[in-house]
Amino acid sequence: MSGHSKWHSIKYKKAAHDAKRGKLFTKIIRELSVSARSAGGDPDTNPRLRKAIADAKAVNMPADNIKRAILKGTGQLEGVNYEEIVYEGYGAGGVAIYVEVLSDNKNRAISELRHIFTKNHGRIGESGCVAWMFKRKGYIIVEQAKASEDELLDIVLDAGAEDLGEDGSNYEIFTSPENHEAVVNALKEHNIELAASNLAYIPQNYIKLEGKQAQQLLRMMEELEDHDDVQHVWANFDIDEEEIAKYSG
Q: Looking at domain 83-125+205-246, what is its CATH homologous superfamily?
């Protein structure tokens, strides 16, 4: 499969820096609370919460922070009520963009996101305008230095993965949502470090961008990712490594 637009080449290099600034902690704490609110505070019976706890531990979030976020979600501690919202729209070159948001103020969120879209030559559309261009999948990234392709292929296919691709520096593993956790666990059992793992909206086709449009789209994606209310952003664009190298943020 085509690489996921190589956006993760920038996105996941930012993760360590974001964690130091507390931005990543903020996003994970919101996810812990919302997942606990939606299906209870027991990770054994709540896969979404189990995933959020794993994400929190991966960035060394203190156990007390994790516990408080869960208790706020279940109502055992007073906390902010976050609403799950999806925004859809278009970026430079007609790229489809799907944004998952957790916000305590829907009006503020839509106003600020519309500003990001507009100033980067995009626009927010109606609900459902681009969702049909994406498919829900488990998505796992493993750096190529961490395993050989043959080794990785044997492990993930046996565990139920659908496909294995690469983008030049990373392997990308795609699963059904139901098999995602099993594939992650299989990789961990073989001591293979994961660069990233989540349930994603994978584009069914990609738009190639170059030059000014590529730079506009990269800037827009970074601004969306940096917004406190935004949990995930998915887009159907592909950009050459040369264009990414030109991007300075």
A: YebC, transcriptional regulation domain (3.30.70.980)
Residues 6+ apart with CB under 8 A from 64: none
Q: Which residue has the tokens 């499969």?
A: 1
The alpha carbon of residue 55 and the mean position of all alpha carbons in its chain are separated, in whole angstroms, by 12
Q: Name the packing angle between helices 63-74 and 23-39 (round to 10°).
A: 40
Q: What is the pLDDT of residues 47-102, one digit of tens each?
A: 999 999 999 998 889 999 999 999 999 999 998 899 999 999 999 999 999 999 99
What one-letter code names the amino acid at 158?
A: D
Q: How far is CA 151 from CA 154, 158, 170, 185, in A?
A: 5, 11, 14, 15
Q: At what angle do helices 180-189 and 47-58 cross, to 10 degrees?
A: 40
Q: What is the pTM of this model?
A: 0.86
Residue range 171-192, pLDDT digits in tens: 989 999 999 999 999 999 999 9
Name which of 52, 62, 98, 74 is nearest 237 in CA terms.
Answer: 98
Q: Distance between CA 76 and CA 79 in Å, rounded?
A: 9
